[in-house]
Amino acid sequence: MLMDIFNGFLSPSPAAGIWLFVLIAMLVVELTTVSLTSVWFAAGAFAALAASLFHAPVWLQAALFFFVSFAMLLSVRPLSVKLFRKGLTKTNVESLIGREAVVTEDIRNVEGTGAAAVGGVIWSARMKEPEGACKKGSICIIDHIEGVKLILVESRSLS
Fold first, then answer.
1. How far apart are the C-alpha atoms of 95 and 85, rounded to whole Å?
2. What is the spatial distance between Cα 70 and Cα 114, in angstroms, rounded to a whole number?
3. Structural domain of residue 139, as residue ranges?
């Protein structure tokens, strides 16, 4: 009965079963993961399946699978990453970047000394500039964090 539906132009080729299996497998993998991981290959398998129903040569089916999968990966993945990361809240150390820190001990990069407080916690601190220095009481902005050291850029002085 199923074969009656496919009679004529859209009759299945031997490769159609393989592409259908790949399509279903990729969709199952996609449904069992929390992020977009295999939808690209599902789209490629769908394109190859469609080509096999029109009796395209196997090399063309494989080429379509790889081309469509790669094109989807390159074009849609950056958008999906941006959408999925949009609602993420920065936690722990990531939340400190861009905040103000008060220098509690003179920072001298050349000597490898200095400390700053942020949120009531004292951290080792260095200036972003290689030969940078900053006086106690200054307010600095946290540029980034290297290990357990705040890397700061000077903002203003309290004294």
1. 15
2. 49
3. 92-157
